[in-house]
Amino acid sequence: MKIRPLHDRILVKRLEEETKTSGGIFIPDSAKEKPIQAKVIAVGSGKRDKDGKIIALEVKAGDKVLFSKYSGAEVKIDGDEHLILREDDLLAVLD
């Protein structure tokens, strides 16, 4: 299924975090927190300003981003879990 977010919304897929600490201890699934890093899958056309002009988003498909822990709406697309966020919910783009 193809999906295109509207306006300033972004579709992301969470990146899996390490299951082992730097000291070699394995973290059980029950103790893991949801990751706050994600890969951008699709972006909307942009936000409108006061004059009605569209302001393009700064992120693009393929970027890796950090986002707030409790932001976004969880959706399932073709059996995979994704998040739809606003660009304002993003904290940084990872290089």
Give a written overview of the molecule.
- The chain is 0% helix and 40% strand.
- By secondary structure, it is mainly β.
- The chain has one domain (9-17, 32-94): 10 Kd Chaperonin, Protein Cpn10, Chain O.
- Strand 6 and strand 7 form a beta hairpin.
- The radius of gyration is 15 Å and the shape is globular.
Distance between the termini: 29 Å
Give the number of domains: 1
Number of DSSP helical runs: 0
Count of beta strands = 8
> Helix amount, in percent?
under 10%
Widest sheet: strand ordering:
6-7-1-2-5-8
CATH class: Mainly Beta
- Report the uncertain regions: none
Radius of gyration, CA atoms, in whole angstroms: 15 Å
Cα shape:
globular
Task: Report the sheet with the most strands, covering strand number, pairing sense and barrel closure.
Answer: 6 strands, antiparallel
**Overall pLDDT level:** 81
* CATH architect. name: Roll
In CATH terms, what is the fold-level topology? 10 Kd Chaperonin, Protein Cpn10, Chain O
Strand content: 35-45%
Order of helices and strands: EEEEEEEE
Q: Going by CATH, what is the homologous superfamily?
A: GroES chaperonin
SS content category: mainly beta
